[in-house]
Amino acid sequence: MGKHDPTDLTLGDATASVDISGRSLVGASPLVSRVLEAEQQTGDFESAGFGASRIGAPDDLEPENSLDESPILPFLGPVKLYEPGKAIRFDRRLCLQRDLYLEDHSFVHAPGVKPASSCLPVLPMTMSLEAMAEAAACLAPGEGLLGFENVTATRWIELEDTDATNLFFAADFVGRDPSTGVTRIKTSIYVPAQKAPAIEATVLFGSDYCVGLDFEFSEFENPRSFPQSGEALYAERHMFHGPSFQCLHGEMIVADNGAIGDFVILSSENLFDFTRSPQLLACPTLLDAVGQFIGVWALAHERFAFPIGLGRLEIYCPTPPVGTLTPVRLEITNDQGKMLQANVEIQDGQGGVWMRIADWRSWKFKWPRRIVDFRRLPHRYLLSRDAPIGPSAPQSVSLMVSDEDLRGFDLMLLARYYLDEVEFQRYKALKRFPERQRQWLLGRVVAKDAARKWVRSDLSQDFLHPAAVPLNSDDGDGPPRVTLGAAGVAPKISIAHCNDRAIAIAQSEPVGVDIEQIKTRDAAVLEAFICDRERDLLAAFSPEEFDVLCTKLWCAKEAVAKLLGVGIGSLMKSLEAVQIMENGEIIIMDQARARVYPVQTFRDEDYILAYATQVAASEQVAMT
Known about the structure:
Blueprint: H1 30-42, E1 79-83, E2 87-95, H2 125-137, E3 144-153, E4 164-176, E5 183-190, E6 199-206, E7 224-225, H3 230-235, E8 248-255, E9 258-264, H4 284-300, E10 304-315, E11 325-334, E12 339-347, E13 353-365, H5 369-376, E14 385-386, E15 397-402, H6 411-418, H7 421-429, H8 434-455, E16 471-472, E17 481-482, E18 492-498, E19 501-507, E20 511-517, H9 523-529, H10 532-538, H11 546-564, H12 568-571, E21 575-580, E22 585-590, E23 595-604, E24 607-613, H13 617-623
Antiparallel strand pairs: 1-2, 2-4, 3-6, 3-10, 4-5, 5-6, 7-8, 8-9, 9-11, 10-13, 11-12, 12-13, 14-15, 15-19, 16-17, 18-19, 20-24, 21-22, 22-23, 23-24
């Protein structure tokens, strides 16, 4: 379509029609016909072109330079059951090494930092449609793909911390409509340990194209140019899709009730490592752009969207050549609740209609801006915010994070962004203790953000990726230690968490930090950590301040214990406040070591924050 004029919105108007006269699909799937003919004669699917060995387990893979240049239906695998014209069952090994496109459809952005299997690669819904079309084609030899009906995705098909997983395909002949010649084949994909299909659809085949959908698009309401071009959306990662799926092209117009734009047909030669000539039936990478385009509309309305199904998709001509610009128009038909529904029309680049989609369904939601920016560019943004405390030392960094700051961010996905492989296993090991697991993760998030901010020496530089900042301790529960290797000098770090929030300080010198909620503590607790001389100090303040002062005193002792790298239990009787000042500073004496430590305390709503630092020997004398 080229450059769009918001006043010229002729794409897909009510007078558009689909001329499919002479468009025959007989013999449109020659590979399927050849495969089935060979199977009936020899019972050998592999020799007929299914390539089961090429799609087998990783230890059976061919050498990398062994590319098949002949057409291959890339999603077909070893057959378990085949009844000609009735049913087929087969397995398919989904594998990062073989299915190269998966790395371009990963939810976690950590290039060069984490292995692809840890970045949650997900099989796109439209690749599932392609896979189901190939399965259904085995039951409709000599016919071509017409489209899909009743597509429902109930769960992600993902590689979760693994390089490969097995999928199971089931396709069953439903019937043939004598009036239209349309063959319907019910097809499903199953993942391990799940009884219900992850996605299912009725796939439509036939000998001739046919039209069942005829949209009458409404006039656009409030049309305007979208701020970014398709190319800019990918470059700035407003869309997480990698090169295999980057079909949005040029300027786009969005309106209150729809949008228009252009898609570009991409080459499929680099989608798989075992063939440069996959015989794709449905152009899945461009179909994925439909979900992206609806995502653009959602972005224009401060929302985000993920596809979950569609009502009906009809194809009216073969896939246009690579490089073709195909105009697209969508109309939003439902924007209620969490559901977003749309009708879509895609042209063939020659003025005709290529396909129509009725009732494309997406789940919509809203994320806080801090989460949006971090998820798309984690090396440029932090999730934590400045802590409401003064600087503990020159160039120190004090940050804080709470559940509210992370609202809408799935904690398991958050962990994948922030943790390296060792830390992630520690996180999963805490799953039996959800509250402890959540607080532990909050502590890692804020500590890594503090370290990343401290390490960055120039505001024009990117931050380190959080997963590239390992945070460990010698025994798993001791003081945290940042290790950066060749990345530079690491800061000293201290973490504390309480309820729904966590705080961390990073600086060049040792530091201890704590956070506690202000509350009334019972007599037994007070007896355990307050001595008689401290009671005399507290008596100098009004009774209304007692709970606040007790919390400050507790925080001060905890901060000193963390500064020293030991548990508060071992120091409870040794640490004693010798001064409590009006400005919130508390001087703590370590009686066992004959050293004093200044502790700064601050109030933040119903919480007390405190940090402790070391002082030079010359200052020790003055303070005592």
